[in-house]
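FORM 7B: Structural annotation worksheet

SECTION A. Query
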Amino acid sequence: MLTKNHLIKIKKEGNEALKKIVSNKNDEKIILFVLENLGYLPKDFDDSWVVDLLKSNHKKIRLNAVKTLGKVKNEQHISKLLDIAKNDEVTEIRREAVSSIGRMRSKKAIPALIELLNDYDPKVVTQAIRALLVFKGNEEIDNALKKLIDHENEMIQMVINKEYFAKKYISKDKLKHPQSYDYLKNKVVLGDVRDILKLIPDESFHLTFTSPPYYNARDYSIYPSYKAYLKFLEEVFRLVFDKTKEGRFLIVNTSPVIVPRISRQYASKRYPIPFDIHHFLVEMGWEFIDDIIWVKPEASVKNRNAGFLQHRKPLAYKPNARTEYLMVYRKQTDKLIDWNIRQYDWKTVKESKVKDGYETSNVWNIDPKYDKVHSAVFPVELCKRVIEYYSFKNDLVFDPFAGSGTLGRTALMLGRHFFLTEKEPKYFEYMKSFLKQKPDEIFHTKPTEFLTLDEFKKTIQ
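SECTION B. Predicted structure
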């Protein structure tokens, strides 16, 4: 039986020994094993037997033969790989052929790669773009690539825009990325969040986690119309965008909400809040990253199934709503996540690492929190996960609709700072019973201050 160690020895014996192993074209398992385990190839590698395998009926053999030719980087094979890229029946093999052409980094491949920019498969085009960008600055290549700004595929548009048309991001952050203003740390401000945010410098927050008020479902969230409600949220999140540091996160906890019917003669109305706010978040510059489903025990939610349980008539089925969404967005930037991480010192990164036992899926089973004062309270466990997964120690986290202040309490517990806003005086007062602490308590952080809008204005430096 052929093993990796045996194959290493055969490679040392030279090309003829390898050819001999694959000479029996009917033994596809051996051929595939050899191709998948060739590893490093010397400059004098004889690839003639690999070229023969491009005609194999076995898809995996063809795929690995194409990969091997990419490692060999023999310019004589450009035409063969181009033919495969254009005509093979397997999409994965076509894409790999383009990748192999690109790995050669050969100017002789430029005409073939430019030709592939017209392919119907966006991923083939993307591979060709990657290969051509090696020669960026070549007038012929730049002109060919710039035309793709009008390509139908949004990923291709994004790449071309970034490479040729994007305005360079100029950060307005006057502090280093990990830093935040002292006068924002551990503050709760009473007032309209829009008025408060307009006083705050751009790029102040590292993370925003919030649950917007539900449309006309609570006594503290009455709006004249659903359109007015969405307009209000759009205004808030546009301001939050400006106040968020480059490449950092916004997590919005929402769910569809039911507005009860007026009487039995009329139907109730269910509004899909998370889906209706998504489009304007993306348009204003938030990049959608993930959707997390918060699942509550069925016994904890309103029973919508009681009537159907009795009559079982089709069309009248209404499931009990056990889920809410945590929609995860990142402030758009050309920089990758690694850039954000590198802004922190090694000690902070180490101390902020998420411990074992973290949630590996996007389905979070967490019991809701009940409160005698506030009817929609964040569970601590929900806040804990979001803060740990999306921020570093000493970061500034923000909740524009603070409610009972769970995010702030959890932030302190996890060694972060918080900034909270709340427009309802009764919740503002309620938070004081949870968030007051002495200066030497809770990680020796700054004591929490509770300020009106006018008082907050006087603290701004």
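SECTION C. Observations
Residues 226-243 form the longest helix (18 residues). The domain at 4-165 is CATH 1.25.10.10 (Leucine-rich Repeat Variant).

SECTION D. Sign-off
Analyst initials: ____
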